[in-house]
Amino acid sequence: MKTAVIGYPRIGENRELKFASEKFFKGEISENELNEIAKEIRVQNWFKQLTSGISFISSNDFSYYDNVLDTAVLFNIIPKRYSNLGLSEKETYFALARGYQGKKGDVKALAMKKWFNTNYHYLVPEIDDDTEVKLVGSKPFNEYLEAKKIGIETKVAIIGPFTLLKLARYTGNKKKEDFKNALVCGYTSFLEKLNELNVKWVQFDEPYLVKDIDETDKAFFVEIYKKLLNKKGNVKTLIQTYFGDVRDVYKELTSLDFDGIGLDFIEGRKTFELIECNGFPNNKLLFAGLVNGKNIWKNEYSKTIDRIKSIETRANVNAEKIVISTSCSLLHVPNSLDSEKKLSDDYKKHFAFAKEKLTELSELSILAGISGCESDARYIKNVELFRNRKNVIDEAVKKRVTAIKDEDYTRLPAFEEREAIQKEKLNLPAFPTTTIGSFPQTADVKRNRKLFKKAEISKDDYIDFNKKKIAECIALQEEIGLDVIVHGEYERNDMVEYFGEHLAGYVFTENAWVQSYGTRCVKPPIIWGDVSRKEAITVSWSKYAKSCTDKPVKGMLTGPVTILNWSFPREDISIKESTLQIALAIRDEVLDLETNGIDIIQIDEAALREKLPLRKSDWYSEYLDWAIPAFRLVHSGVKPQTQIHTHMCYSEFTDIIPAIDAMDADVITFEASRSDLLILDSLKEHNFKTEVGPGVYDIHSPRVPSTEEIVEALKKMREKIDDSKLWINPDCGLKTRGERETKESLINLVKAAKLIRTA
Ligand code: GLN
Ligand code: ZN
């Protein structure tokens, strides 16, 4: 059986691309030097796949920043404000990705959004009425030739025209339909060029097809590909889908003239059913996504081989037509276990990062081809692994989850009654001011954490330093005149890893970085077993903060859904069950904070939307129906006078406002300044009951907002939100900001609050 990889991580085994790019941005290395490092990464990636015997290896899966941006640039989708800067090609590319501020002008970056249901972010192509879509670049051809030169025949991967047009943003009057013909021409030129180069296979990535596709879009998709496939020449075409199943377009997909169809059998709940019930055309290859491209656990061979057998027998796909593939690009997993020096083999043997997944593909292809593979050593070893999987099972945790009662998901008394009690108890001014939690993480703060981690300073020194920072931070907030005080989060590197480190059931890696966007990588912790709280996590910091001031201090926690969504989850229990375990752990922390006199507690759910299913019909049944109650479980045990806050940012909220209200927090702060306050309409429309602080300025910029502009924003908010429910705050944590602009911005924020209180 043949094997295929949709795409390979491109950041480099030790994040070489990240570091080289950052140096290039600072002018420390030349463009040539950056290109050399990039080439090295591509060559290494190809060789790894070649030596693992992968039959279909991609080229053009590499990117300097993002492959949606690459595709936009390839087809000349570059707004004038960037092309007019007069920069070099590479500089223009990075200006689109990161913005440009210099002698030649000042432009912001393109908008960035989450790539489907992942934590990877793509740049949103921007098309205006003047955009002249046509093939102008040569990246895919160059990379194909580069691989060819070292003897590797690759399939050329590219984002397909349908997904590209669906993800783009149209800033003029024209809509996607108006660019269809031009884009088809562009892709036709692209195919012509591939024919000239004698390319054997092209891979069109069309993940958008796993979303809900209505009749209009279906027709649009069919029309594009009918035209395009007419011109394919000798190049074989693979249409690659991932992150779900293609139930709305399966018939169309299978009747179009593709040579291969890539389907996801991991996240595609209905994929098998689709091929079983409708059959699969015998003139096409089925690229079966059977090795999980998103998670880090070893593949369970017995199950996968059974699946392959049932594809052959029940769906009647001939073995020669099946290609064993990853379920999506391996971009979403870390590079290789080789660089995990500290992690014991007891753990490592259960994991497969990108490189190890190559071995899995090749072993599976061999095993699937031999009858009686059950007696093969590789098979037996894998079966043993699953028989002896030692995910730490904690009976007490399991019992606690089973014992959760319906009423544990409901906080009493109801919101309105609590609201009155809290107003009286907290006695805050109208339009209370606060921040989201973190204060600038200056070099001394990072250094203190680092020294402590390396055991170069004592625990007492570490704590004393943080206490000093907390005291200063509180003095500053008092001086500025903020109403609800935070401790500043100096003890945290990251809002998920920090909690993971204090929970039983987690495992950490040294080097398992995954690209989040551009040069930014994250290192998600791994949920290894049943999760419980080992000890109080934040209580001592909050208690100390409280002792520094007479004003109310807000405790600061990360919520269970965000902790789960930013970790690698287990596969042996459901993510719902894992989330409930985490919820119980955080619930203990909430109650501890309350006992210790903290009467405002914020529980951040920044990643709540991330795992929202891609199909609307699944939103509640598959996700919100347990994710929202899991949040309520965290805070349902507190007294009516304890005020629960939550915070969310940088996702699309307007369509899940009722679900957010159902979290039943007392106050929610969120990012709104970037999305031009669009969310306010939705709040009003749904009669949002929770008190709300839509961020009054964008913390991602060092710019200091003026008092007038904050007052303006507040005016707009007051049109849609009742005065008695409106809070005033920045739109996210301040940890990435400098101290000067933080202070100046907050001073203006408090001035604005005073102005509207007295107006
Ligand atoms: N409390 C966190 C902070 O202020 C929230 C971070 C976030 O929303 N990503 O840093
Ligand atoms: Zn935030």
Give a quick rundown of the structure.
By secondary structure, the protein is an alpha/beta fold.
Number of strands: 23
What does the radius of gyration come to? 27 Å
Structural class: alpha/beta
The CATH architecture assignment of the domain at 412-758 turns out to be Alpha-Beta Barrel
Largest sheet: spatial strand order: 1-14-13-12-11-10-8-2
Alpha-carbon distance between the termini? 75 Å
- CATH hierarchy class name of the domain at 412-758: Alpha Beta
Q: How large is the share of residues in beta strands? A: 5-15%
CATH topology of the domain at 412-758: TIM Barrel
Hetero compounds = glutamine, zinc ion
Large-scale geometry? globular
Number of distinct helices: 28
Low-pLDDT ranges: none
Mean model confidence by pLDDT? 96
Helix fraction bin? 40-55%
What is the makeup of the main sheet?
A: 8 strands, parallel
Walkthrough of the structure:
The chain has 759 residues and is an alpha/beta fold. It has a domain at 412-758: TIM Barrel, CATH 3.20.20. It contains 28 helices and 23 strands. An eight-stranded parallel β-sheet has the order 1-14-13-12-11-10-8-2. A five-stranded parallel β-sheet has the order 19-20-21-22-23. Zinc ion binds next to loops.
